[in-house]
Specification:
This is Protein HEAT INTOLERANT 4-like. The longest helix has 32 residues, at 255-286. The chain is α+β, with helices and mostly antiparallel strands and 333 residues long. The chain has 10 helices and 13 strands. The chain has helices at residues 3-18, 48-51, 62-65, 73-78, 162-166, 187-194, 208-211, 237-246, 255-286, 289-297, and strands spanning 90-103, 106-119, 127-130, 139-142, 148-152, 170-175, 196-198, 214-219, 226-231, 299-303, 321-323, 327-328, 331-332. A hairpin with a 2-residue loop joins β1 and β2 (106-119). The strands form 4 sheets. Strands 5-6-1-2-10-13 form a 6-stranded mixed β-sheet.
């Protein structure tokens, strides 16, 4: 063996003799396993009430509608076997009712969501009414003008099945207006959404407006407009005008102009009533017996949230009235 090789072998032995002994491996301590989490299964129609757009609600109030975890299990149960809406074709729309209700030992004004269900073989209407105290005239416009339409609602368990999607029996009034685009919208257009009411015309029943003899008067006087209601059957125009002057609601110099204004409004209202009666008569003449039967059997149901420990108590504010077009619900829940 060469001398260099001997020295190398000797140095390796020396290094090995100085190496520290390997430490014994410590047994791994087992980490405590976290408790398994259990999530409650989602109900099949759990998001139905949220899917229906709350028509006529102010945009800045929408978030307050959803601040509570409202429970509409009564609406869901209505679609189950034995329920009021089981197997029926139904059209749903939402609305809100601001009410003073008890919540956590105090009274609070709350925007209560309400769902109206219309049992009908066809859409109850394709129009929206736009009306308010501030607006001089009522507008009836196509839903699509306000980016609203009836769309099928698909229960959770059917959302992956294209065939079931096409067989939907539940339709909701939906709105595709994006909230992010509201900043660019003109004020008048924006306000129209707040004055929207789902429209319904019942051709088999004379409309209240056809029978009405009252006109809303908004007379553009100075220094402030005159707001009043004039009934052309019960009120005498001269006496009505003199009373407004006595109450300092109208200036004496504007008496004749006011009377002419009222007469014109009365003529317009009578003409509108006459046209409405003629239109209803014509619609009835052209209507099939099947459609007549559908209108006769159409039913309106109004659903309020079910009482829970986490939500305000709305049991004392339930009312059958829906709106001026639909009138009262046949049943409330």
């Amino acid at each position: 063996m060469r001398k260099g090789a001997k020295r190398k072998a000797a140095s390796q032995k020396q290094e090995e003799s100085h190496k520290p002994a390997p430490k014994p491996k410590r047994a791994k301590s087992s980490k405590p396993q976290p408790e398994p989490e259990y999530f409650e299964d989602k109900r099949n129609l759990e998001d139905l009430w949220k899917a229906a757009f709350p028509v006529g609600t102010e945009w800045d109030q929408l978030d307050s509608v959803y601040q509570f975890n409202w429970n509409f299990s009564n609406l869901e149960d209505a679609f189950e076997e034995g329920g009021k809406l089981y197997g029926k074709k139904v059209y749903l729309f939402g609305c809100t009712e601001p009410q003073l209700v008890p919540y956590k030992e105090e009274n609070k004004v709350v925007c209560i969501p309400v769902i109206v269900a219309v049992e009908s073989p066809f859409p109850p209407s394709d129009k929206i009414g736009i009306n308010s105290v501030q607006r001089e005239a009522e507008e009836i416009v196509p839903m699509k003008q306000m980016k609203m339409d009836w769309v099928p609602y698909i229960p959770l368990e059917n959302r992956d099945n294209q065939v079931d999607r096409l067989k939907s029996q539940i339709f909701i009034l939906s709105c595709t207006q994006r909230r992010v685009a509201l900043k660019q919208m003109k004020i008048d257009r924006l306000k129209k959404y707040e004055y929207c009411l789902p429209y319904f015309y019942q051709p088999l029943k004379e409309d209240e407006l056809e029978q009405s003899t009252e006109v809303q008067i908004i007379f553009p006087a100075e220094p402030k407009p005159v707001f009043c209601e004039f009934d052309w059957e019960l009120d005498e125009l001269d006496e009505f005008t003199d009373k407004l002057i006595e109450e300092d609601e109208l200036d004496k110099d504007q008496k004749d102009a006011f009377k002419d204004f009222v007469k014109e409004k009365v003529r317009e209202a009578k003409k509108a009533n006459r046209q409405a009666r003629e239109a209803r008569k014509k619609a009835l003449e052209e209507m099939s017996e099947e459609t007549k039967a559908a209108f006769e059997n159409m039913r309106f149901y109004k659903f309020y949230p079910v009482q829970t420990p986490d939500t305000p108590d709305v049991s004392n504010v339930k009312a059958p009235f829906i709106n001026r077009y639909y009138g009262k619900a046949h049943e409330i829940f």
